[in-house]
Backbone:
């Protein structure tokens, strides 16, 4: 294919603004997929994605399109993850494109993540082709939304294309616009081969399959290649492109998008952002922008039933095959037994992993309160990074503790500025500035500790704004803070899995809430169980779970024996599922109560 | 050793709001066919298990909704086919306010020598909440009539832990019950059973949820009060004058063999326990057709084999309900060929330390606190 006839583009859209429907329509109109084979939302091939209405895994589909100039073009649609946790992955996908179709819902207007990704796209100098979608809906206001786009990014509102992906209206015009407005890929076909990895998946037969955009040169079938950052050298098992299935090909040329089946066994060996070169091309320089995996949120994952430990281990190994950003290592808790400490890109990522473990692997797992990575400076001058309150050294040896702060943007209708200000202030956010997007909508900018965001923040933001607010965030930097470890003692014994690190000003209030919450969820035992929250040796809150007085079947006659015995057996089994801390039985949900302190 | 024989009468005039027993209102047309089927099952059980009968219990439902003629037919089947001992305890349950003096005389004449009356409470509001058909006066009247008909062994059932019930109203009910000088009193803490109207009303918030700590106070109040009046506790929920313990129920708690006839009745004998189908018509059809089942009754719905480990566990679960006799070392050893220490040494020590059991090397019994926490004890002896 002539380089001038290649167009590489992605679609930037907010959840539910119709990205998947539009992608389906493009595939259909270009004949990439027949009507008969048309599955709803081909690009999202995981059940979970469909339910969440977002794309977790990127894809790259090649289409052939005959334009009005009678020429045939090769269009490569590169799908981008739709969530803020995957900003780095999004940036690599954008780096593989020359253009971006910006899809905005004609009834909703632009949302925070869309804008964040749009700015990312502008940073990469992508040609933006704006589209207002869902013009078929009665509540659509395409002219207003087009004006909003013009105000925001300076593209003439007249150049904003009205589309109904659902009904197919305007999609032809969009295809033409992609051909005419998006520039063909630059790159030197005669230079040594270089390709950017922007995604990957694991295939049981072909090993790690990396998705690449060829930047320079040509790769021929069977030529050994090298992954520069991870320093792996392999002889590819197959080259090809997605149509939308994997379709083998004998070469990948400059500007093209396709895949290389590497045969590698672990996905961590093929990191997104890495550069693929020929094995013997020693002097070639790596493409810019590569970053190693950097988990931001950490949590303990424990099997509900101790004997499921190995199943959990297997499941994590399998998930990691396809998810290079998931990291974990074994961890032992005195309260919960054997489990794993896992690191995630963000909260959403954590939620996905948790759901997949439960759904795809049918595991009952207990996830402890998430933590961020703290940098602890000790009195002897060392700096250690900890990702669990249990790892915090003794108070007396600590010089200072620093925690990660984020820059966050909240997009909200002006009516909710008050509630948003209130809830962010409670979470130690520092207000930076506010910007009116139009008369009804504002962008609020804050700096905020990540630890304040990882429990319930997004849900609360949504409920404080009746679902209207959207959120974007990125890492800002580490800052020292007056942080303390809040311990929980049940019957006089500290329970490691319930400890949290909090700001000193919040310790008292959090401790009180935690104690009263635990008092509700810990069932009465044969003896009085004191629950205490403590900072260091100082108890800041306490409550007692009163001793149980009555638990006896009133009747047990001839006709009751079997039924009542089974009732007792069920009771007994239920107790076995509780975690014993000392002589106290603590139900699983107690360990989750740290998560819901604000109710 | 004689067995216990239970006959289930699954009919009531009205269903009470708390009741989840196998009983039906408005099935009058089935009384006759049911009595016949019951008699037939009794004859069949007698042929399969020709054992002497030491106790007989007519339970329900409300056995006294059946006519004397039908009850006679049922009891005749028992006397004709089983060797019912001369001094057998023969109990019938009855609802206060629904039985005449003549009826009670005839019942006594049929051989029934113990009457168990569901008084439940003497408080008008509480009776209405429970959906009882009688009032407090009806209880007094029925006791008088029962005495006049020659019953010298009476039980009153009372329920405590009712929604909205106070310690004071409970104490008043107790006083009124004791004033009628029954030989036996059963006190049952209300269980809100699945599917009952009373439970639904509590779940919907239309009635206050009972407080288990208050129920414990009520239990202890009753325990003290009854003791002062000369009633001896012998089971978690049962008190009597000395010598008037319910012999039939002792069969259950001692985990001895019994046969149950009738819709939904349970039998436990020779290492198996089975239970009959519950719907009245189904029961009649099954008995009449007389087809084979894996169990000894054609009406059996299902059952279970009781192996030795389970029998041991159940012997503990039931025997420990007996507050005075508990589980005797000698009985246990005779039955299972090993000592309680050998079977449950660690569990016993732990529960003794927790203050729930007393163990004097001859009898294992619940402590006063243990009586209110029986489930915590029983479960520990079950094999699962």
Residues:
């Amino acid at each position: 294919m002539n380089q001038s006839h290649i167009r590489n583009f992605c679609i930037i859209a907010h959840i539910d603004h119709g990205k998947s429907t539009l992608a389906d329509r493009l595939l259909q109109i270009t004949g990439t997929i027949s009507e008969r084979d048309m599955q709803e939302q081909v690009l999202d091939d995981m059940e979970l994605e469909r339910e969440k209405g977002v794309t977790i895994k990127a894809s790259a589909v090649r289409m052939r399109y005959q334009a009005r100039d009678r020429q045939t073009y090769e269009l490569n649609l590169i799908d981008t993850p739709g969530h803020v946790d995957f900003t780095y992955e999004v940036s690599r996908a954008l780096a593989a494109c020359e253009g971006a179709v910006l899809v905005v819902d004609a009834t909703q207007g632009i949302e925070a993540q869309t804008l964040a990704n749009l700015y990312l796209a502008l940073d990469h100098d992508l040609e933006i082709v704006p589209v207002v979608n869902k013009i078929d809906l009665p509540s659509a206001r395409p002219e207003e939304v087009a004006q909003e786009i013009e105000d925001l990014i300076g593209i003439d509102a007249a150049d904003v294309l009205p589309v109904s992906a659902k009904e197919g209206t305007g999609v032809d015009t969009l295809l033409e616009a992609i051909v005419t407005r998006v520039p063909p890929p630059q790159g030197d076909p005669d230079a040594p081969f270089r390709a950017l990895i922007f995604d990957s998946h694991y295939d049981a037969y072909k090993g790690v399959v990396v998705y690449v955009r060829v930047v320079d040169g040509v790769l021929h079938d069977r030529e050994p290649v090298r992954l520069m950052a991870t320093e792996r050298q392999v002889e590819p098992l197959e080259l090809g492109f997605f149509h939308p299935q994997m379709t083998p090909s004998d070469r990948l040329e400059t500007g093209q998008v396709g895949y290389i089946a590497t045969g590698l066994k672990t996905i961590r060996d093929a990191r997104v952002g890495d550069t693929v070169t020929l094995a013997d091309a020693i002097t070639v320089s790596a493409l810019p922008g590569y970053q190693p995996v950097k988990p931001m949120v950490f949590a303990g994952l424990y099997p509900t039933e101790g004997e499921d430990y190995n199943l959990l281990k297997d499941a994590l190994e399998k998930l990691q095959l396809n998810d290079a950003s998931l990291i974990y290592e074994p961890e032992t808790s005195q309260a919960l037994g054997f489990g794993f400490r896992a690191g995630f890109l963000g909260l959403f990522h954590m939620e996905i992993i948790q759901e997949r473990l439960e759904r795809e692997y049918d595991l009952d797992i207990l996830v402890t309160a998430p933590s961020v990575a703290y940098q602890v400076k000790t009195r002897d001058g060392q700096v250690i990074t900890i990702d669990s309150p249990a790892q915090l050294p003794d108070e007396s040896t600590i010089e200072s503790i620093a925690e990660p702060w984020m820059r966050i943007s909240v997009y909200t209708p002006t009516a909710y500025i008050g509630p948003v200000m209130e809830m962010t202030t409670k979470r130690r956010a520092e207000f930076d500035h506010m910007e009116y997007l139009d008369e009804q909508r504002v962008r609020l900018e804050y700096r905020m500790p990540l630890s304040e965001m990882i429990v319930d923040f997004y849900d609360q933001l949504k409920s404080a704004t009746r679902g209207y607010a959207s959120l974007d965030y990125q890492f800002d930097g580490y800052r020292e803070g007056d942080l303390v470890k809040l311990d929980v003692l049940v019957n006089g014994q500290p329970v490691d899995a319930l400890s949290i690190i909090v700001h000193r000003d919040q310790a008292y209030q959090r401790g009180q809430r935690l104690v009263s919450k635990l008092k509700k969820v810990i069932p009465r035992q044969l003896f009085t169980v004191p629950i205490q929250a403590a900072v260091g040796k100082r108890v800041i809150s306490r409550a007692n779970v009163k001793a149980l007085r009555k638990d006896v079947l009133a009747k047990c006659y001839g006709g009751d024996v079997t039924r009542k015995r089974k009732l007792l057996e069920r009771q007994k089994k239920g107790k076995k599922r509780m975690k014993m801390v000392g002589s106290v039985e603590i139900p699983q949900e107690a360990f989750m109560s740290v998560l819901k302190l604000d109710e | 050793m004689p067995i216990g024989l239970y006959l289930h009468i699954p009919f009531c005039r009205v269903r009470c709001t708390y009741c989840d027993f196998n009983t039906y209102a408005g099935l009058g047309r089935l009384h006759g066919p049911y009595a016949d089927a019951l008699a037939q099952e009794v004859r069949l059980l007698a042929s399969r298990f020709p054992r002497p009968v030491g106790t007989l219990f007519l339970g329900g439902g409300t056995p006294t909704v059946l006519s004397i003629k039908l009850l006679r037919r049922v009891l005749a089947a028992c006397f004709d086919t089983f060797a019912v001992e001369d001094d057998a305890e023969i109990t019938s349950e009855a609802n206060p306010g629904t039985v005449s003096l003549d009826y009670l005389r005839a019942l006594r004449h049929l051989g029934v020598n113990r009457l168990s009356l569901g008084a439940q409470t003497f408080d008008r509001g509480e009776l209405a909440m429970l959906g009882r058909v009688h009032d407090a006066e009806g209880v007094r009247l029925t006791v008088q009539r029962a005495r006049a008909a020659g019953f010298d062994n009476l039980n009153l059932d009372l329920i405590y832990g009712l929604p909205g019930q106070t310690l004071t109203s409970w104490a008043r009910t107790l006083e009124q019950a004791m004033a009628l000088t029954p030989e036996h009193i059963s006190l049952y803490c209300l269980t809100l059973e699945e599917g009952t109207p009373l439970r639904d009303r509590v779940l919907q918030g239309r009635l206050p949820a009972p407080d288990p700590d208050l129920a414990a106070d009520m239990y202890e109040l009753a325990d003290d009060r009854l003791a002062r009046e000369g009633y001896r506790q012998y089971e978690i929920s049962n008190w009597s004058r000395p010598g008037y313990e319910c012999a039939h129920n002792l069969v259950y708690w001692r985990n001895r063999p019994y046969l149950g006839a009738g819709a939904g009745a349970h039998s436990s004998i020779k290492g198996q326990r089975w239970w009959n189908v519950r719907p009245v018509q189904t029961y009649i059809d099954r008995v009449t057709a007389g087809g084979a089942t894996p169990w000894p009754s054609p009406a059996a719905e299902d059952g279970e084999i009781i192996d030795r480990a389970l029998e041991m566990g159940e012997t503990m679960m039931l025997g420990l309900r007996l507050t005075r006799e508990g589980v005797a070392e000698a009985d246990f050893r005779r039955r299972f060929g090993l000592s309680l220490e050998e079977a449950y040494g660690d569990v016993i020590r732990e529960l003794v330390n927790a203050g729930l059991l007393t163990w004097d090397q001859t009898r294992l019994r619940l402590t006063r606190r243990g009586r209110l926490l029986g489930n915590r004890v029983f479960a520990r002896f079950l094999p699962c």
In short: Chain A has five domains: 3-181, 194-278, 297-370, 375-481, 485-593. Confidence is low (pLDDT under 50) at residues 43-58 of chain A.
